[in-house]
Design brief:
Arc Repressor Mutant, subunit A; Nucleotidyltransferase, domain 5; 3 domains; five-stranded mixed β-sheet; 15 strands; Sugar kinase of the NBD/HSP70 family, may contain an N-terminal HTH domain; carbohydrate metabolism
């Protein structure tokens, strides 16, 4: 049974969290604005601000015009004092780079490709991650935490990753204690979450602008298809500890076998980049005039490029991929009602052809009461998942600032 009572130290941290959160998002705000946002008295705010300024977490920015023409002293979070190390582990690549609390990157991105993630390759991946952490922490000693995005299935509370090959027998599955093993290589707090969830959070935090109460759905398609949901800045997780696996919703029960879960007709079986490459290989012999015939090996990027060159076969593949994704979105809209759907990852290279396929299905298949939200393709260079990994750590730290930002505990 979890404890529900709050001691004075808990209440102090809760009030600090509200103030720090607002200051990070609103540099230069006044004490009066903080009072209006938090509901705290001016005396309480003054005491908390004093302790935060003493330890260098915030600072005064000078005078600014307040309401009714009154001058007030602005306050700001000390963005130079803290950085986050973002780490992304996908099924084919490891990426590491520092971020600040404004979403800016620092240093040179570490990007290490590999063929797959299995129990046999994890030792190499852990070592590469540990080396990256050590290198960046030496270069940027202000790094205060690690935010890590991982694929699913994963278990967020323990930072455990379920490794392939998957087995229907739980006793034969590989549950890899990723967070526990990484913690042996660093003293920094590590925050791990599913890659599509952190992408949705990163978009809400840095890209939604005036839509701060918005419900954001992030559809991430690269090695697999992941779908994350953020409601008013909170990752929607349900009651379970395991990550969402909405990419495995079936859109055709007699359809293709999903190489990941073994089910039939998953969104993942049609719209992941590995699936797109496999479908292309299967159908290519029927299209001798396609540009793709000139490649002995090709990737999803090659397919998208051929579509941009108006190759009929490649164009149809991308359009059909969009249609399958459209069917998945249509199913999801009967469960969730997001304000905006963000499509991120390699699939965004499909551009207008992909969107045309999505819109074709949504237009023809919507019910009388279905609300179609805004759908946005994010450019591949947005690096939403890495930004999201950093954002997730920022969010966790600001929820417990005394612990993670090294603040005094007695005032």
């Amino acid at each position: 049974m979890s404890k529900t009572g709050k001691n004075l130290t808990d209440l102090l941290d809760l009030n600090r969290a509200q103030i720090m959160y607002y200051l990070v998002k609103h540099p230069g705000c006044s004490r009066a604005e903080l009072g209006e946002f938090t509901g705290l008295s001016l005396a309480s705010i003054t005491k908390i601000i004093h302790s935060l300024m003493e330890c260098g977490a915030i600072y005064e920015t000078g005078f600014s015009e307040g309401k009714k023409g009154r001058r007030s002293v602005g306050l700001s979070f000390n963005y130079k004092k803290y950085k986050i190390l973002a780490v992304r582990l996908s099924w084919s690549r490891l990426e590491i780079q520092p971020y600040d609390f404004l979403g800016n990157t620092y240093g040179k991105l570490i990007s290490i490709p590999f063929l797959n993630v299995t129990i046999d390759t994890m030792k190499h991946i852990i070592q590469a991650t540990a080396d990256g952490i050590k290198s960046f922490c030496a270069e940027f000693p202000e790094i205060a935490a690690i935010g890590m995005a991982i694929p699913g299935p994963c278990y967020r509370d323990t930072g455990t990753l379920l490794l392939p090959p998957y087995n229907i027998d739980p006793a034969k599955r590989h549950y890899y204690p990723l967070k526990k093993i990484l913690a042996e290589h660093t003293q920094l707090p590590i925050f791990i979450e599913h890659e599509s969830n952190v992408g949705a959070l990163g978009y809400w935090w840095f890209e939604s602008h005036n839509e701060k109460d918005a419900v954001i759905m992030n559809i991430l398609s690269e090695d697999g298809v992941g779908i994350g949901l953020v409601d008013n800045g909170k990752i929607f997780t349900g009651i379970g500890n395991c990550s969402w696996e909405l990419g495995h919703i079936s859109i055709d029960y007699n359809g293709r076998t999903c190489p990941s879960c073994g089910g039939r007709g998953c969104i993942n079986a049609y719209c992941s980049m590995r699936a797109l490459e496999q479908i292309t290989k299967e159908l290519l012999p029927e299209h001798p005039d396609s540009i793709l015939q000139s490649y002995s090996n090709f990737s999803c990027q090659t397919i998208f490029q051929a579509a941009k060159q108006q190759d009929p076969f490649a164009s149809n593949l991308v359009f059909e991929c969009g249609k399958h994704l459209g069917h998945g979105i249509l199913s999801l809209l009967h469960i969730f009602n997001p304000d905006i759907i963000v499509i991120s990852g390699m699939i965004s290279l499909g551009d207008d052809l992909l969107m045309n396929g999505i819109q074709d299905v949504l237009t023809k298949g919507r019910s009388a009461y279905t609300i179609i939200p805004k759908i946005k393709l994010l450019p591949i260079d947005t690096e939403l998942t890495m930004l999201g990994a950093a954002t997730f750590a920022i969010d966790r730290m600001l929820n417990a600032p005394t612990q993670y930002l090294s603040l005094p505990t007695n005032n």
